[in-house]
Amino acid sequence: MLNISDLYGKVEEKDILKGLSIDVKPGEVHAIMGPNGSGKSTLGNILSGRPGYEATAGSVTFKGQDLLEMGTEERAREGLFLAFQYPVEIPGVSNMEFLKAAVDAKRKHHAQSDLSSVDFLKLARETCKRVDLDASFLKRGVNEGFSGGEKKRNEIMQMMLLEPDLCILDETDSGLDIDALQIVANGVNAMRDGNRSFLVVTHYQRLLDYIIPDYVHVLAGGRIVKSGDKSLALELEAKGYGWLENEVA
Amino acid sequence: MTEQVESLIKKDYAAGFHSAIESETLPPGLDEDVVRFISAKKEEPEWLLEWRLKAFRAWQEMEEPTWAHVHYPEIDFQAVSFYSAPKSMDSKPQSLDEVDPELLATYAKLGIPLHEQEMLAGVAVDAVFDSVSVVTTFRAKLFEAGVIFCPISEAVHKYPELLKKYLGSVVPQKDNYYAALNSAVFSDGSFVYIPKGVRCPMELSTYFRINEMNTGQFERTLIVADEGSYVSYLEGCTAPMRDENQLHAAVVELVALDDAQIKYSTVQNWYPGNAEGKGGIYNFVTKRGIAHTNAKISWTQVETGSAVTWKYPSCILKGDNSVGEFYSVALTNNFQQADTGTKMIHLGKNTRSTIIAKGISAGRSNSSYRGLVRMNPGAEGARNFTQCDSLLIGDRCGAHTFPYIESKNPSAVIEHEATTSKVSDDQLFLCQQRGLDAEKAVSMIVNGFCREVFKELPMEFAVEAGKLLEVSLEGSVG
């Protein structure tokens, strides 16, 4: 699904990623953990093609294609989804209009016809229910006046509607109370189908109680310093990141 | 803003073709003889000729205003031709079948097939091609309701009493430099009269079009809504692409008598000049309405065209409890300049006005809101709410707000809110990450920004306005 090999990347002339490698197979859930400033968010931004984030060396293949050669929207249409840590507001643009445009753009890319407004509305309403959002959120401006938890649930709703092949969750758990966390995690778990892959970027082990990862990687200083299974996350929780940094040094 | 919204603009002006229609055009220049020629050509009565001459003499004494936040080379009025008419209009057509097919093809290209509109849309169109009204559809149906909708040149002959009473009653000849010029040389335009208590059975619509080179267009529109009547009027504008600047100085007068309502909507898409700022229309327009007791006047405008715009649709709230509204979207791109806004003059008791102005600037353009809210001593309990929002796209454009507030009545309430925002990289990235391309994303964000104004437009105009914004923003992200 996703193969990252010896990736170097920078943001505004500052080198952040320094030789990062991960291989994600279809259906796998990989958790990326690490201390603040280790490059966790940079990884998601580089993979999704955010302007200002640049890969300087190494390679990334996504479903057999050279990801770094693809434009931002093309990556999205090919099935790469980034759930934002801080989703922005777009005043006056209804969630519904935004979501339909996104779904239509993807369908067009795959030579499918647009969904009718009626079919889409039905689908969107059902999806709202799955993340416990009232259907009235469809009429509101994108993230406009949403609480932190509503914004995150809105992200998961978008993910469900777009049915991506690879979901990158960028610290989706930050700022969520336990109820919202469970809703988000349930949403993610419901989407695990053996083919869809997840890259769960998080600072805390807490989220991984609900989304059980197949692999846990520790990112420090711009590269993976340790990999393991879910028990690694628990170990990190108990010991903190300090021991790893010492071990590596 | 970063490279994401770096804007250098290339835009195709879809209406920028020129129709090969033989025209009768007066040589450039302006003196009393030109005014007499125009009046004679239209076989006008003596009073109207005198009215024009009075305006012309006043104009000669006046100076071109320079207070607006726009810059352009001085206009040489002696280089402008003040009259142009398609020749085939000499034998005046009585129906669409008799109209020059080339002319109709032009309208079709502009997306306003008259036949179709007549059949399907239920919109009566008075199409002004250069200086002569080509054809007025639906007149019969309107006539049944007692509504008068005809070229102003025709109204002069058929309804002289109404014309004498109301022409210049809202915008006097000497009102301002361009209004005086218009009063002297106005070529044609629309006249609307809605009788007492009548709700106009359809939306009235006029498309103006400047076709001839070096031709100024000076239409004059007069709408009189008699007591308790209602009318919605739509105006759309385009002009061919030319390297030279063309002058457009129109006057619109609205009279809403007691309990009457006039809704006036404009989508203005005059040629804005090319990406280097060459060519384009100079749009110097005076629009004003007077609202009597319990009357209501609404101006809704979407301004995307013209090289220079100077326009302040205004309301004089004369009668008690009268209401004035102004909803505006002004979009400038490339080197366009717009200085636009409104004046709400509160005279009567408990008068109310609402101003929602949205300015969008892209490229190297400048967009200014200029608005006056005046509460006169008699405006007991009057209220105004003003909201001005500016949206910037890129980092080489400007947005300016010039609000003037004068209150001479302590019981009057005036509220003013203003915001400035940018299309942020984060918003764009969110859209692109969801698969939308950058242009679609910008147009969606801008449309969202304009939502409050678009919802005031009649449905078909709202759709057109949205599309127009999309076209006008083409190339504003790269």
From TrEMBL, chain A:
UniProt keyword Nucleotide-binding, yes or no: yes
Sorted UniProt keywords: ATP-binding, Nucleotide-binding
Residue ranges constituting the ABC transporter domain according to the UniProt record: 2-246
GO MF annotation list: ATP binding; ATP hydrolysis activity
Record's keyword annotation contains ATP-binding: yes
Protein name per its UniProtKB record: ABC transporter domain-containing protein
Annotated source species: marine sediment metagenome
TrEMBL record, chain B:
Family as reported in the entry's similarity comment: Belongs to the iron-sulfur cluster assembly SufBD family.
GO BP: any one term: iron-sulfur cluster assembly
Record SUPFAM superfamilies: Stabilizer of iron transporter SufD (SSF101960)
Domain SUF system FeS cluster assembly SufBD core: 208-449
Protein's name according to its UniProt entry: Fe-S cluster assembly protein SufB
Ranges for domain SUF system FeS cluster assembly SufBD N-terminal: 141-200
InterPro entries (alphabetical): Fe-S_cluster_assembly_SufBD, SUF_FeS_clus_asmbl_SufB, SUF_FeS_clus_asmbl_SufBD_core, SUF_FeS_clus_asmbl_SufBD_sf, SufBD_N
